[in-house]
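User: Hi! I have a protein structure encoded as tokens and I'd like to know what sequence might fold into it. I'm fairly new to this, so please keep things simple.
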């Protein structure tokens, strides 16, 4: 993997990346940053969760002059949620350089956005409608705008914004550099790219890299009337940090929300019939981690980026494989693992097959504790034998990442055996072993975590040498 420093980024941006804790570029960043820095137009086929914001944001910020008050970069987004998210990201990346990023979106007072623009922002992130509005009021001038990004262009198309997008593009200098990001490439988006991008470089990350590598995916057959009870069972067994639960309709969203709330759970609902203010309140509470459970419809959750989401639960089967990939993409963000559990009714078996074929994955049947390795009988500690309480250590559990997963022929019991043999920890101290293709995760007592990493590293299992590191919590 190429480190960020070799992509041609300026020192203050590299420093900002260290501040936000990114160790290495994601595939879309590795592919898109060099051509954008070299001045090419770029078509990026990538979804939320791929790291696309930094892929276009870093090159844009690199070319912005913070001493100039004019708007030099514009990012158009289809929704207000995405607008806010992109703004937050660009502010973080541009902080060291002192770039001012202004967000403009509907549903908020236009006056304060006008005064922010008057104060001079070099980068504007805006929803299509509000950008158009501000241009027509002469509050937003694009004559000096040399870098334009269309983010989630296919969503703009779906929401009927394409004509407005073209009008806005026509108001920017023809010498501008343009990047177009889209999860899918329908013909209308191709045409837009043909017309408004000059000799573009196309970069793509396959949708299945989004789901296969970092998300463990399960399916669970359940009769309609048992769904709520089953969901509660799943939540109790999985103990998610944060779970996003998808339902098909607004009414079902409210119903499920009430049922969970009435069972005393800390849960919120998010759907399109709620007022913008109520939706914002829910988003902030969930994003801030104050609420662990969120029931949402697809539209409401569009573009939602919450890095703490450990679980996506499809309470209602997705209406298409694309919707599945979109939903599951809410978890397992860059550098993290996630779990997705899809409920289906007996008559929906075919939907599951369609998803498996399309996403190129096999959904394992979900059974309680399937992922938790057996706790007894476990291999006995071989050396440094300590009393039980001491071996199990204290403090909150920490997650260790182990190189070597299913592809290396490893099973949860191998991981537990390797750790217990190397550290003399009791088998019960190693919990929640989760196997992915190339990695495994295990939880160990916080006070023992560093020792687990140092003593287990280098152990051979089935001829595979284990490397371990602590996950950032
Ligand atoms: P995006 O697809 O741009 O919405 O980014 C998805 C998530 O990944 C965001 O929470 C980013 O902060 C995070 N992210 C982006 N790039 C990286 C990276 N290179 N390393 C770690 N996390 C990243």
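Assistant: Happy to help. Inverse folding works backwards from shape to sequence: for each of the 473 positions I chose a residue that suits the local structure. Here it is:
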């Amino acid at each position: 993997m190429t480190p960020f420093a070799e992509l041609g980024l300026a020192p203050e941006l590299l420093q900002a990346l260290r501040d936000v804790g990114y160790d290495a570029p994601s595939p879309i960043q590795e592919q898109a940053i060099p051509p954008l820095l070299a001045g090419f137009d770029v078509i990026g086929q990538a979804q939320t969760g791929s790291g696309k914001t930094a892929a276009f944001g870093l090159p844009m910020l690199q070319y912005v002059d913070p001493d100039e008050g004019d708007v030099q970069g514009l990012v158009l987004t289809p929704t207000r949620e995405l607008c806010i998210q992109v703004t937050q990201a660009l502010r973080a990346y541009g902080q060291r350089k002192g770039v001012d990023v202004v967000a403009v979106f509907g549903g908020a007072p236009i006056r304060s956005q006008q005064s922010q623009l008057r104060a001079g922002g070099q980068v504007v992130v805006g929803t299509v409608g509000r950008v158009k509005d501000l241009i027509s009021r002469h509050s937003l001038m694009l004559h000096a705008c040399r870098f334009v990004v269309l983010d989630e262009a296919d969503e703009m198309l779906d929401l009927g914004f394409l004509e407005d997008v073209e009008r806005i593009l026509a108001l920017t200098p023809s010498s501008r550099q343009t990047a177009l990001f889209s999860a899918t490439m329908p013909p209308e988006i191709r045409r837009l790219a043909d017309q408004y991008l000059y000799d573009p470089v196309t970069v793509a990350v396959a949708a299945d890299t989004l789901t296969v590598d970092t998300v463990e995916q399960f399916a669970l057959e359940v009769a309609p009337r048992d769904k709520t009870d089953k969901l509660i069972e799943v939540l109790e067994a999985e103990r998610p940090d944060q779970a996003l639960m998808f339902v098909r309709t607004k009414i079902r969203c409210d119903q499920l929300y009430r049922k969970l709330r009435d069972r005393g759970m800390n849960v919120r609902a998010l759907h399109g019939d709620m007022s913008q203010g109520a939706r914002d309140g829910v988003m902030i509470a969930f994003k801030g981690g104050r609420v662990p459970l969120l029931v949402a419809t697809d539209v409401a959750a569009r573009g939602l980026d919450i890095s703490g989401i450990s679980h996506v639960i499809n309470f209602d089967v997705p209406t298409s494989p694309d919707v599945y990939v979109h939903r599951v993409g809410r978890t397992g963000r860059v550098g993290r693992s996630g779990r997705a559990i899809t409920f289906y009714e007996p008559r929906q078996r075919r939907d599951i097959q369609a998803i498996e074929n399309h996403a190129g994955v096999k959904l394992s049947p979900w059974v309680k504790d399937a992922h938790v390795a057996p706790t007894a009988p476990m291999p006995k500690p071989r050396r440094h034998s300590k009393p039980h309480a001491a071996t199990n250590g204290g403090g909150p559990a920490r997650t260790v990442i182990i190189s070597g997963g299913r592809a290396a022929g490893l099973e949860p019991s191998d991981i537990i055996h390797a750790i217990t043999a190397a550290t003399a920890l009791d088998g019960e101290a190693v919990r929640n072993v989760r196997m992915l293709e190339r990695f495994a995760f295990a939880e160990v007592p916080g006070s023992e975590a560093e020792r687990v990493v140092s003593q287990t590293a280098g152990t051979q299992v089935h001829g595979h040498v284990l490397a371990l590191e602590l996950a950032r919590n």
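A useful reference point when you look it over: The domain at 4-205 is CATH 3.40.50.300 (Rossmann fold). Feel free to ask if any position seems puzzling.
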